[in-house]
Amino acid sequence: MQQQSSALAFGGTQSVWTHASTSTGTDMTFAVFTPPGEGPFPVLWYLSGLTCSHQNVMDKGEYRRAAAELGLMIVCPDTSPRGEGVRAHEDDWQLGCGAGFYVDATEPGYEHFQMHAYLTAELPALVAEHFPADMARQGVFGHSMGGHGALTLALKHPQQFKSCSAFAPIVQPSTADWSRKALAAYLGDNPEAWRAYDATLLIADGHRIEQLLVDQGEADSFLNDGLRPWLLESACADADIDLTLRMQPGYDHSYFFISTFMDDHLRWHAERLTA
Amino acid sequence: MQQQSSALAFGGTQSVWTHASTSTGTDMTFAVFTPPGEGPFPVLWYLSGLTCSHQNVMDKGEYRRAAAELGLMIVCPDTSPRGEGVRAHEDDWQLGCGAGFYVDATEPGYEHFQMHAYLTAELPALVAEHFPADMARQGVFGHSMGGHGALTLALKHPQQFKSCSAFAPIVQPSTADWSRKALAAYLGDNPEAWRAYDATLLIADGHRIEQLLVDQGEADSFLNDGLRPWLLESACADADIDLTLRMQPGYDHSYFFISTFMDDHLRWHAERLTA
Lengths: 275, 275
Hints:
The structure is a homodimer.
Chain A: E1 2-9, E2 12-20, E3 27-34, E4 41-47, H1 55-60, H2 64-70, E5 73-77, H3 115-130, E6 133-143, H4 145-156, E7 161-167, H5 177-187, H6 199-204, E8 211-217, H7 223-227, H8 229-239, E9 242-248, H9 255-273
Parallel strand pairs in A: 4-5, 4-6, 6-7, 7-8, 8-9
Antiparallel strand pairs in A: 1-2, 2-3, 3-5
């Protein structure tokens, strides 16, 4: 594991690391904020949206002040494998590099796209080994495609991720225009295979988490086509999942929206991970 | 004046604007954060460092939460003219585009570099016309080259800028390696012409401000060559200027440093501008 950078921030340390991943068969880069103090600290995973790397939230997420106060470690992985041999789809921001959709691909040509395995096994083990992390207290949150990632990871692995929240998540990727193509490319044409990576269908199939916080901007241009939080609201109501869905008037899909409500999410996770 | 973007953030509005500047003879872009409420609001100018545009602090400065709470308008100009006809010096990050040093150039070839006039007259008039700004309550702060800009603008125009602070400022550009070349290019070879844009020499020449807050990282790689805050400390002591110089152990020159202490600076300005 190679350190790319490290800087003191809000009394903690913001660092960036690269390692050779066995899950993806590529080098992978991730960012870690370690709060001040000795630890071990609860670990909160932030999963980013389409086109992002580990860096967008590190630059624009404004999570360090509250994370330092609350004693949370924040880990920000990349959104897909990258580099030589990885199908990039440079003309399509919804497929390939920057668009891993947090699945384990089964289709030929997409062997490197094993983000689900990477995030549930390989990277947690690496974090446990190299940082003052309390792996018994992990939470997950994310934005847009990363909100989808957070919801599906928590629903599939509730013993690993004990708290979950999302900013403007894609709640039903199997029917949303901007995700169906990627699911078909990574998992094949049969929509039955997509159910394992669709939050609303995981809930319909019996997966459960206790509580969920979702913020959604009402001025988000993707609200009605790609995001549709009412589908999650309906699924949670049917399954008795305690969803707090906050529609935020005037807010769009950007990091201006995310950073505004970042503190609320960090406090929400801290209450559940440090109790 | 054309709006490039606008987004709700922390209950206020972060917007970006472009206009044809008569001072520089180019299009100029700047960012404005307007806090929630009716105003008029005190106006705090943030001047950025070498290589930056209006965007770096907008992305990484983390000023919106506190500015919204405190009711401060934050204006973030570019650091130089850009575009057709402007000497860019693409191989030199300390001269030309991104390195305006907040002076009014007098040398042939640098006619567009009129950042001092732009920031003291043209842009304030534009802000006064288009935003709910109380121009009787202006403060100025900045980072590195922009810290130099903040100090020199406040010293030269204490009636305009009623509060001043800086992150890791270049306090004596006339003797620092990374600024002497630019001053010579913009103002000519005679160092006497540089005194009007050198904070320590402006103080020696009788210019005064009452109070000053400066944060400086001790792990800043430019500390001993370019920044040398002890020169400011000495000048302020000689002139009875109330300088609060805070040396911050472990902090570097980056926005991780700036964002950590941003809240302190905003509160410091708010106390002086909203009293």
